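Late entry, evening session. Most of the bench is empty. Finally got around to the prediction I had been postponing all week. Sequence below, unchanged from the version circulated by S.P.
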Amino acid sequence: MSSATHGTTPYYFVPDASRHPVMAAIGLFFVIVGAGQWINGVEWGMYMLYFGMMWWLTVLYQWFKQAINESEGGLYGRKIDLSFRWSMTWFIFSEVMFFGAFFTALWWARSHSVPELGSLENALLWPDFKAAWPSLVAGATTSPAGIVEPFQTMGPFWLPTINTALLLTSGVTLTIAHHALQSGDRSKTIKFMWMTVLLGVTFLFVQGYEYVHAWNDLNLKMSSGMYGSTFYLLTGFHGFHVLVGMLMLLFITLRLQKGHFTKDRHFGFEGAAWYWHFVDVVWLGLYILVYWM
C-alpha cells in the first residue's frame, strides 16, 4: 500500500457494497460442477470448467484493481494496514498447517505404517512383504502381489540441488530489493525484483524437467507406492505455491514500475515477500526429508 496521494486518509476505511464476492462464488460454482462432470466422463464438463476459471479470474482482476485504486487513492490508513498484516499472517499460518499435514503423512508412513506392516504380527497376512523405505523393486514396500512396477527413487543430485540454489538465491535478491525500496532506490528495487521473478520461473522449468525425468527414466509415478504418492504430493503442491508466489512478485514488480509503493508504505510488497520466504523454508524441509532421507 502506498501513502495517500490526495485528501485525508480516513481512520478506518469502510468499503461500499460490492458485487465481487458473489460473482467470484458464481465462477467457483461453474468450476466445481464442470470439474466434477469432466472427471466422470461428461464432455461439456471441460468447457464449463474453463468458463468458470475465466469468469473467476476476471472477477479477481476487477477486485484487485479496485483495491489497488483505493490504496493509491489514499483510502487505506493504519487500521487497514494492520488488518492486511494480520490477514497475511493467518494465511501463512494456514499454509504451515497445510504442509505440516503432508510432512506428517510422509513421516507416519515411513516411521510407523511400513514398519508395522512388516512386523511379525502381520507376517501371516503379508508373508512376502519387506518393510523397506524407499522402495527399489516392485513389492518392496506395499505390494507383495507385484502390482507396483519397479522404480528408482529421486536423489538430491543434481536437479533438486540446483533448485535449492535457485530458491535460496531468490530469497537474497528479494531481500536486496526490499532494502532498496526502504532506502528509496526504485530502479534497484525493480532490477532485483525482476531477477527474483526470473529465478522463480527457472525453478518451475527445472522442476518440470525433473518430473519428466522421474516419470520416463526412473518410472517414478503417483502409483509407485507410498513413496511415489508422497513425493508428487509434496513437491507438486510446493511447485504450485512457487507459481503463485512468482505471480505475486511479478504483479508487485509491475506495480513498482507504475510508481506504486513508497519506502514507508509498501505492505503489498512485504506480504508477497513473506509468502516467498515461506515457500523457501518449505522447500528446505522438502529437500532434506524427501531427497536426502
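Two things to note before I forget:
The first helix runs from residue 20 to 39.
Helices lie at 20-39, 44-72, 78-117, 159-182, 186-216, 225-257, 267-292.
Will write this up properly tomorrow.
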